Amino acid sequence: MKKPSSDLPFMKMHGLGNDFVVIDRRSGGRAVDARLARALGDRHRGIGFDQLATIEAEDGVDARLVFWNADGTLSGACGNATRCIARYLIEEGRSEVTLRTDRGDLVARDAGEKLTAVNMGPPLLDWREIPLAEAVDTDRLPLPGDPVATGMGNPHCTFFVEDAEAVDLGAIGAEYEHHPLFPERTNVQVAHLVGPDHLRMRVWERGVGVTLASGSSSCAVAVASARRGLTGRRVAIDLDGGRIVIDWREDGVWMTGPTAHVADGVIRAAWIGAVT
């Protein structure tokens, strides 16, 4: 295979410790495929990330975003990466941006105090849309632990427990990610009520494993909690990486939190040629 002729610039970002490699392709450059994403996701031999995101030029919106998991699979949505990239574009001189994703067109705004808010769109509550393998009550899945299923551009399975800290998340996450009820696999969350409209949550992301935070998972947990009557529609969620605020409004599920643009670098052409 012919090796690429040039290095590939990238940015390293994170939202509450949910970390990303971001490649800005609005001016062209090498496309990302599953093999390259998987190699870059290796934290020992590549760069390492929970998700990789590319920023693509597209008519009618400020940019199109494409997300890859660390195992080289595509993801339809990534809330924290969307927020990080929105902040990056806002700092180019905009106060609001519209980003096209497989989830749909998402609006993001500067929320003040160095926070960024993104409308992740309405939740998907029908079993076909999530999707599930069969018609079941998505608020009361017929699974041990009585979880809730929610779609936020990718599937989510939420368990409400007495103590999220005490759960073996590695075991439960690996088991339910691949459960037959979820034909496209699923993200898995465990959460407990801390106080009024305040949750503690831990997350297992499909194709990645345990992560410090997940934006779409936070949205799904907030929606599930409101559906169960545990909280109202605006909640603060404490993740392993910090706090995020989710507000389920009439126009969609808004997510507000901090972002960090950690570093800029280049991926060497010779290394890309060797791994692809």
Structure characteristics:
17-stranded mixed β-sheet, 276 residues, alpha+beta, Diaminopimelate Epimerase, Chain A, domain 1, 17 strands, 2 domains, single chain
Explain the overall architecture.
The chain is an alpha+beta fold. The chain folds into 2 domains: 8-120 and 259-275, Diaminopimelate Epimerase, Chain A, domain 1 (Roll), CATH 3.10.310; 148-250, Roll (Diaminopimelate Epimerase, Chain A, domain 1). Helices cover 18% and strands 39% of the residues. It has 5 helices and 17 strands. The chain has helices spanning 34-41, 79-90, 169-177, 215-228, 269-275, and strands at 8-15, 18-24, 51-56, 63-69, 74-75, 96-101, 104-112, 115-119, 148-151, 155-160, 187-195, 198-205, 209-211, 234-239, 242-249, 252-257, 260-267. It has a 17-stranded mixed beta sheet that branches.
